[in-house]
Each structure stands twice: as structure tokens, then as C-alpha cells.
Amino acid sequence: VSLAENGPVTLWARDEMHAQQMQVSHSNARRLPGVNLPKNVSITADLNDAFGADTLLLAMPMQRMGGFLNAHAKALSGKTLVSCSKGIDIATGQGSTGLIHAHCPGARAAVLTGPSFAADIARGLPTALTLACADHSESLQATLSTPNLRLYRTTDTIGAELGGALKNVYAIAAGTVIGAGLGDSARAALMTRGFAEMLRIATTLGARAETLSGLSGFGDLVLTCTSTQSRNFKLGHALGANEPFDPAITVEGVATAKAVSKLAQSRDIEMPIATMVTALTEQKISVPEAVEALLARPLKEE
Ligand SMILES: NC(=O)C1=CN([C@@H]2O[C@H](COP(=O)(O)OP(=O)(O)OC[C@H]3O[C@@H](n4cnc5c(N)ncnc54)[C@H](O)[C@@H]3O)[C@@H](O)[C@H]2O)C=CC1
Ligand SMILES: O=C(CO)COP(=O)(O)O
């Protein structure tokens, strides 16, 4: 919706019926209720229509990205692929640029990430994001920026993708804290110690600390740990309050917690909060047990 301010956009949807509904109504009632799609957004269920563009934005659940890239590797060769997905692929431990390089070596990989609810961007509310691309990305930055969408560029793709992926894990933890009635002070402590975990694992994996401190890390951590709009926060809230949660909703932090706990274990890195989120979402531990285990850890320097 936002990019349509810069020129024509093709929106591909897998489901033909849904694509037809969107074409007729020029809206996406299921995912973006109350937003009219601009006239220069053409909606298609035929991927070949989307493959006509040089730059493609990929916005799908992270655990589906490897399969998508693999299935369309030939058509995607030579394209600039901008991942909007936030997660770590559980099968390979890779972020989205790793998957793009592995499946589509002929494509250029970029990451668009940062604090941004789709509903806010679609309504034209002002937002700032990180655009990460290993090569010089000034022209891509200009192509994807709009008057209300301000992009900061970096070459640190690993840092940008890990910031966006990891914050979801701590948003689940923050939601749990609030859902269980443990209070805002506990949430602030958890966000801060969560950020320390993000820095620890991301820098070990090759990220720059400055990237984690920017929009894609700290910025998105603040947003998702404090907003009831966040699906990751909402899942955590349901866990904390012992309430049901719709399993069909995309909650990236569940798989990412598992993937990052595995990565941390293999590198001997301490990530106690991520480990607790994994155990909680796998129902191996109760909320009171998780809180007790975190508080009982040996006292240490900050
Ligand atoms: N919704 C939001 O506010 C934001 C979402 N993101 C990220 O974008 C990614 C997608 O999230 P949402 O769009 O919100 O999820 P969603 O659940 O609303 O939509 C997912 C879309 O992916 C499609 N999809 C599922 N499997 C697919 C496959 N195998 N191949 C192609 N398409 C497939 C679905 O049909 C659906 O259109 C996630 O990684 C999320 O973290 C990033 C920033 C903001
Ligand atoms: O990444 C997001 C906002 O930046 C969306 O967060 P949720 O996936 O938790 O809704």
C-alpha cells in the first residue's frame, strides 16, 4: 500500500479466490480490514505476473520461505529479493538472507525490518525501518522509501535479520509477564536482559552491535514487547493468563525461540530467557516454574 505511492505494485496471493475477492473489493478484509488498496496495486494469483518485476518483497511466515525459494529458484535468479519476514529457519538455523543465498545464489538479498505493524504502514502512519543489503543499497533505499516510510540503510544483513527475528522471542516473554500479572517493572527487566541475550548471540553470529541497537533490534523489541497489537505479545499474554490462543495465527517467535536455543546451546552461549520461552511454548514448564527458574539463577555482574 505504501509503495504504491512510488509507482505501480503487483501483489501476489497464493489463494486464487482470495486474490479475486481483493481484486473486486480493492481491499484485503481478512488481513487489513478498513484499508483501501490503491488503484495502482494489481492483485494476481499468477506468480509469473510478479516475476516481471526486478525487486520482489517476500512477506510470508519464515518457516515457509525455504520451500518457496527452492520451488521458484530459477525465476528468482537475477532479482533483488527483499525479505520482510522475521524469523530463523528451524531446519537450517539460517535467517532469510542465508536462505536466499542457499536457494537462489543468483539473486541479490536484502532485508526490510524494524518496528512496523502492517496495519500502521497501510494506514499511512509515519514509520522508520532498517533496509539491509550487503552491497551499496542507496538506490534500493530510494526505491522503497516513501514520504511516510523512512528507511535507514546498513550493510549488516545478519544484524538486521537477527534483530527482527529475536525480538519476537522476548515479545512472547513480555506478554507472558503482563498476562500473569507480574507487572511493568518485571517487563522492563525482561526486555533489558532479553536485549543482552540478543546482543550476545547476534554478535557471535557475525552481527554488528550497532545494528542491534537500531530500529531492527532495539526499536522492534520496544514495539513488540509493549504493544497489544503484537501477535507474539498476545500469545505470551494468553500463556501468562492461562487463556486459549488461536493456533492459526502467525507467531514467529515460537519457532525462532526453538531455533535460537539450539544455536545458543551449540555455541555454549547463555540465553536463559529464550530457553524458558521455548520450554513454555512446548508446554514443558509452567509460568510460575519459568519465573522461579529465572529468578533463582546465580547472581552476576551486569
Ligand atoms: N503483520 C505485521 O505487522 C508484520 C509482519 N512481519 C513479518 O512478515 C511475515 C509474514 O507475516 P504476516 O503477513 O503478518 O502473516 P500472515 O499470517 O498475516 O500472512 C502470511 C501470508 O503468507 C502466505 N503464505 C503462507 N505460506 C506460504 C507459502 N508457502 N508460500 C507463499 N506464501 C505463503 C499466506 O497465504 C499469507 O498471505 C512474518 O515473518 C512476520 O514476522 C513483519 C513486519 C510486520
Ligand atoms: O514485527 C512486527 C512489528 O514490527 C509484528 O509483530 P507481531 O508478529 O508480533 O505481530
UniProtKB/TrEMBL annotation:
Instruction: Name the top EC class.
Output: oxidoreductase
Subcellular location(s) of the protein = Cytoplasm
Gene Ontology molecular function: any one? glycerol-3-phosphate dehydrogenase (NAD+) activity
Q: Where does sn-glycerol 3-phosphate bind?
A: 86, 114, 116, 167, 220, 230-232
Q: Which residues form the Glycerol-3-phosphate dehydrogenase NAD-dependent C-terminal domain?
A: 156-292
- What residues bind substrate, as annotated? 86, 231-232
**What is this enzyme's EC?**
1.1.1.94
Q: What is this protein called?
A: Glycerol-3-phosphate dehydrogenase [NAD(P)+]
Q: Which organism is it from?
A: Thioclava indica
Instruction: Tell me the lineage of the source organism.
Output: Bacteria, Pseudomonadati, Pseudomonadota, Alphaproteobacteria, Rhodobacterales
